[in-house]
Design brief:
It is a single chain. With 295 residues, this protein is an alpha/beta fold. Helices cover 39% and strands 19% of the residues. Strands 1, 2, 3, 4, 5, 6, 7, 8 and 9 form a 9-stranded mixed sheet that branches.
Length: 295
């Protein structure tokens, strides 16, 4: 386990400058501290570079990996860590190539790059099997891992997964394709308002963190796609789909229909009046649901 240093920050290619990443990291840490998330920072060398993980929770509990959405980092789980940590041993992974503290040294070019990196992280932590909880593109990565390494996957919990089993809406694909470059795209507040229900009170610290993502990062990640029917039907672990009935990245009813058709034995959990961030929009409800699904 290696703590981050200014030298490590200087090696990162995702942020525009080392100073920009320091600003980002301070906002990241401040957000978690606000919610009194007791974390241990872990750094693990792997296929794509040096990955940063947040470790917290009950070390006697079932190991659980949280995979974040595009641009959000492991800090997006700030409403989730303490609740899950009462019973689970929780790790939040900053995906290399995206916002977060991880250092990208090899640009990802295929889902196999991510699968291998996650496998190496599990090996390094001596985790034989894990519960995977993936939000948005994190659900895409979690599914890819479960397809290739079912023996290392205890359960697969997908929250508003990007692509994976259904095409994203055309304008969402376009927005993602045009974004990812520092200083481009809509404001952080506007983006967050578009993925949460009307009237939702966004956390100011999370907005500040996402402003740093918009202003200072050049994302280098694999674009999510729909897995083949053969790949999805091969999944042999329990699968849960959590989706808001106002999901914006796809039509939620079609997502449910496709999931039932393509994901063996999937259990569906529809969250009323939620858009794309149910764990932030309705944290108590989602935390209770995640704890029950992890049993």
């Amino acid at each position: 386990m290696i703590m981050a240093t200014s030298e490590a920050i200087a090696q990162d290619s995702i942020f525009t400058t080392p100073e920009a990443k320091e600003v980002y990291c301070k906002r990241y840490d401040r957000l978690l501290a606000k919610y009194q998330v007791a974390v241990e920072d872990i750094w693990i060398d792997n296929h794509l570079g040096r990955s940063h993980l947040i470790e917290t929770g009950n070390k006697q509990g079932a190991p659980t990996i949280l995979l974040h959405g595009a641009g959000l980092s492991a800090a997006e789980w700030f409403p989730t860590y303490n609740a899950l940590g009462k019973t689970l041993h929780v790790y939040g992974l900053d995906m290399p190539g995206d916002a977060g503290k991880s250092l990208l040294k090899k640009p990802p070019r295929s889902i196999e790059d991510y699968q291998l990196s996650i496998l190496q992280i599990l090996d390094n932590l001596s985790l034989e099997k894990v519960i995977l909880i993936g939000h948005s593109i994190g659900g895409f990565f979690a599914t890819g891992f479960a397809i290739s390494y079912p023996e290392r996957t205890e359960k697969l919990i997908l929250m508003g997964p990007a692509a994976t089993h259904i095409q994203m809406r055309w304008y969402i694909r376009l927005l993602l394709q045009l974004g990812g470059k520092a200083g481009t795209g809509p404001s952080a507040r506007k983006i967050l308002q578009s993925v949460t229900h009307k009237g939702f009170d966004l956390d100011p610290g999370f907005i500040k963190l996402m402003e740093a993502v918009r202003d200072y990062t050049n994302v280098d990640m694999l674009f999510p796609y729909v897995y083949s029917d053969e790949e999805l039907s091969s999944i042999s672990v329990p699968v849960h789909l959590i989706i808001g009935d106002k999901e914006i990245i796809c039509r939620h009813k079609k997502s449910i229909k496709n999931a039932k058709k393509k994901l063996p034995g999937v259990e569906i959990h529809v969250i009323k009046n939620a858009v794309h961030m149910p764990h932030m929009e309705y944290p108590d409800l989602i935390n209770e649901l995640l704890i029950s699904l992890a049993k």
